[in-house]
Amino acid sequence: MLIKEYEKDLLTCKVFSDRDSMGRYAAGVIAEKMRELFERQDEITMVFAAAPSQNDVLHYLVQENIDWSRVTAFHMDEYVGLEEGSPKSFASYLDRAIFGKVAMKRVYYIGSGDAERLCERYESLLKERPIDIVCLGIGENGHIAFNDPEVADFSDTRLMKQVGLDEVCRRQQVNDKTFDTLAEVPKYAVTLTIPALVSAKYMFCVVPTEKKAEAVYRTMNDPIDRAVPATILRRHPHAVLFTDKDSAKRLLHVSP
After folding, report:
1. Which of 120, 141, 189, 199 is the S-S candidate for 168 at Cβ 3.0 to 4.6 Å?
2. Residue 256 scores a pLDDT above 70
3. Residue 93's pLDDT band (cuts 50, 70, 90)
């Protein structure tokens, strides 16, 4: 159930009573926007985040009545150094959550190997297919994709690049139970840059759980700056932030 709504600059933040209703509602909004785009164009291009925060929205999105044969999909980031097909990779997560459950026209995987070559290949593909919809989350450090504060660049000239992962980001992967220990978490990743992400026509950001409460609060209240990369969402004309009462608890606490 929707319990509160906030607006800051161009960004709307919707707060739900629980993460299940958050995910169901967000999936409905995304599906409706997809159907709307299909009325104007033959195909659409989407980018998907891979994280436990996306479990609920993807669970409901694959149940929507959508012509997936008209969708081209990308995933937005990947660890450097994992073996091809590793179950801990973001590609494997998305295969389990969505890519293996619906029949898309095409799915472009980042793959493994030399990071610069991977970035060049993905940039070339992205330049051929402007992004219609990005489905993303926000990290505990306020990152979007793997654009941590130290490497985030709102004016990046690249669409994809290799980055080092900060300790907060790496610890989050342990908190999310993707890895058992910090030592196992890769120190580098390749990621879509912030300009690549915000080039999308629509951005739907799903952020549940208390662990994200500080990041959500700062996204809505801090200056728009690389210190909290997600604040860039407040400049996008068609971005929506979906939260549950736990991730929005600081917003709810300070609201009049």
Report:
1. 141
2. no
3. very high
Output the pTM of the full model: 0.95
pLDDT digits (tens, 9 = 90+) for 193-249: 999 999 999 999 999 999 999 999 999 999 999 999 999 999 999 999 999 999 999
**Apex CA 136: angle with CA 165 and CA 161, to 5°?**
40
Interval 233-243: pLDDT, tens: 999 999 999 99
Angle at 13 between CA 41 and CA 32, to 5 degrees: 25
